[in-house]
Amino acid sequence: MTPGDLKANAGIKLDPLAQELDPFRGIDFSKLERSLARPRTFMSMLLTAITTAMTLFALIPLFSVVLLLLWRGGRKLSMAAFTQLPPAPLEQGGGFGNAILGTLVIVGMAALISIPIGILSAIYLAQAKPGNHLASSVRFAAKVLTGFPSILAGVFAYGVVVTVTGGYSALAGAVALSILMLPTILLTAEDAIRMVPAKMKEAAIGMGATDTQTVWMVLLPTAVPRILTGVMLAIARGAGETAPLLFTALFSNYWLVQQGHLRLMRPTASLAVLIYNFAGMPFANQVELAWAAALVLVALVLVTNLIGQSLSRRQVQ
Fold it and tell me: pTM for the complete prediction?
């Protein structure tokens, strides 16, 4: 709004000379101030207050859980908790070092399975021409998998891996988690590739690049930050799953690495299953370790999500 418009709205008439010398002369600025007596201002401030209150109310459960974990789990955290094996019943001390290692190995293997498949599928979907029925079917299946019950992924991996190999293993757990991680990676990677400006693709083609060179040297490098955001979110989801691991990796009280070898085809401990097992025991030491393990697991998931959000914001900037 220009000074002339302000004066016209205020109903003030000034001669051209006075207007040229002082364009704001005669304007009552008090009429432009916000006042609760005005309905629009009152409704705006009321709705802002309600939105703020509802936001704080929604954050209460999150902060309550975090504070409870810090209070109950923080007391048990020590170097021994990260380096020792789970204790037997009635035994004091102990830790969950093998569960941390098992979680990292299982989630890492699941990422190695799901990331290549997800990104390659996303490239195909992003480059598919309109009306491609195969691409539409794959995209629909990925969206269905986003709401796929995690326990069914565990049952599927049990039937495909556990029954074939003859035992519970970290590999079976990784297969189950990769099913849950795949749709998140696929859909976010497809959106990231589609958001690359068309001019960049056209410029690469104009310089004589093939479709493969355009994808690997232009589209993917540009979309990497958004793709990594989806990967981090998928890893965070996989790290917190319990039900699939009950059917596939089960649990173990021993280290995954024995005599310098990584035993991937044996039952493997994980933080989620350790929490599930220890939380229902009638022994105070095991219950306290469950709280400490829950705090560590939440911290790992939180850090992974923060990394994903940081990558997303960096891409936006």
Answer: 0.81
